[in-house]
Design a protein that fits this description.
This protein has helices spanning 59-65, 94-107, and strands at residues 9-11, 26-29, 45-48, 55-56, 81-85, 91-93, 119-120, 126-127. It is an alpha+beta fold and 170 residues long.
């Protein structure tokens, strides 16, 4: 990652990061919402938590920035904005994000791509598997069946679906 320290900010309540149109907090967050915990090229979303209505790049950022236990986004509010694309700044509903994460394609059997994109890099942060489909520069267009922003097509980390229960009520 080639972001300078001045491009990364750490915020905790009551402060939010003024670079974003939504209330966003986190640890060493860059302009596309990568954080100290998740900073691969496809780590460009922030998720809204039900407990405090703020967006965080990950649950570890929520834990570091707050004094309460995280509550996932409630199922009854899945049609409300709950995900921020860090590339274009679009907010999308939980339903739209979850429908776009490949679950529908896998359920119908049209997508049998293995998901091994979540591992540890040399820095201790997660790293993608390194295949050319997963490791794209931010802002690049994803293939139609990939996890991607519905507005700008920026690729999202497909490994996030492994722990989506941390962010979205089942």
């Amino acid at each position: 990652m080639a972001t300078s320290p001045t491009e990364r900010r750490t915020t905790t309540p009551p402060a939010t990061d003024d670079r974003f149109a939504v209330p966003l907090r986190g640890v060493a967050v860059d302009p596309e919402t990568r954080c100290a915990h998740w900073d691969d090229s496809v780590d460009v979303i922030a998720l809204r938590f039900g407990c405090c209505e703020a967006y965080y790049p990950c649950d570890a950022c929520h834990e570091a920035a707050t004094d309460h236990e995280a509550e996932p986004w409630p199922r009854g509010r899945f049609d409300e904005p709950a995900v921020l694309c860090g590339v274009c700044g679009t907010t999308i509903s939980a339903r739209e994000y979850l429908d776009g994460d490949g679950e529908a394609q896998r359920a119908s059997g049209s997508r049998a791509k293995p998901d091994d994109s979540e591992g540890q890099g040399p820095s201790g942060n997660r790293a993608s598997s390194g295949d050319s489909e997963t490791k794209r520069a931010s802002g690049s267009r994803a293939k139609p069946d990939d996890d991607a922003c519905p507005r700008c097509g920026a690729a999202f980390n497909p490994g996030c679906r492994k722990h989506r229960d941390r962010y979205f009520e089942a």
